[in-house]
Design goal:
about 160 residues; alpha+beta; Nuclear Transport Factor 2, Chain: A; six-stranded mixed β-sheet; elongated
C-alpha cells in the first residue's frame, strides 16, 4: 500500500511538472508572437509607404501617403531644418516633394525594428531653378505606433537634392 501511494504521489508531481513546463512554453511562444506583431505592423506600413514611391510618376499620389500618418504626426526635414506638424502641413510638404519635375525615388534598402524603420533611398528629379537633372541619396527614419507614422525624419545633402 505504501508503495502505491508513493507511485501515485510521484505521478501527480510528474503531471504537475509537465503542466508547468507546458504553460511556460506556451507563454514563451505567445511572447514571441506579441513581440513580432509590432515588427509585422511596421512592415505593413513600410510596404505601403514604399509602394507609393515605387509607382511611376503618374501614380505617385500624396492622397495615398497621408493616411499612413497619425493625426498629430511630425515630418522633419533635417537638411532644410524644417518641421511639419499635423496632416495639413505634412500633406503640403509631400505635395511639394512629389511635384518636383521628373521626381523619382528608388528605395535601396530597408531596416525594420519593432516600432521604427530606416529606408535608404536615391531620389532623381529636375531642379526648378536651374532645370538641371539632379540625384541625391538619403535616409528616412520612420517611427511608427498603432500602424501609423508618428514621426518621419529625412536625412540627405540639400546641395545635391532636386527638390
Amino acid at each position: 500500500m505504501e508503495k502505491t501511494k508513493r507511485s501515485l504521489w510521484r505521478s501527480k508531481w510528474l503531471y504537475i511538472v509537465v503542466a508547468a513546463l507546458l504553460i511556460v512554453a506556451l507563454s514563451f511562444v505567445a511572447g514571441l508572437w506579441i513581440a513580432d506583431s509590432g515588427e509585422r505592423s511596421v512592415s505593413a506600413v513600410v510596404d505601403s509607404y514604399t509602394a507609393v514611391y515605387a509607382g511611376s510618376d503618374s501614380t505617385k499620389d500624396v492622397a495615398d501617403l497621408v493616411p499612413l500618418y497619425a493625426e498629430n504626426g511630425v515630418l522633419r526635414d533635417v537638411a532644410t531644418d524644417r518641421t511639419y506638424e499635423g496632416l495639413v502641413e505634412i500633406r503640403a510638404a509631400l505635395d511639394a516633394l512629389l511635384s518636383t519635375a521628373g521626381f523619382d525615388l528608388t528605395v535601396e534598402k530597408t531596416l525594420i525594428g519593432d516600432d521604427w524603420a530606416l529606408i535608404q533611398w536615391t531620389a532623381d528629379g529636375t531642379e526648378t531653378t536651374s532645370g538641371r537633372l539632379a540625384q541625391v541619396g538619403g535616409t528616412t527614419l520612420l517611427e511608427i505606433a498603432e500602424e501609423k507614422i508618428i514621426r518621419e525624419t529625412w536625412y540627405y545633402d540639400p546641395a545635391k537634392a532636386p527638390f
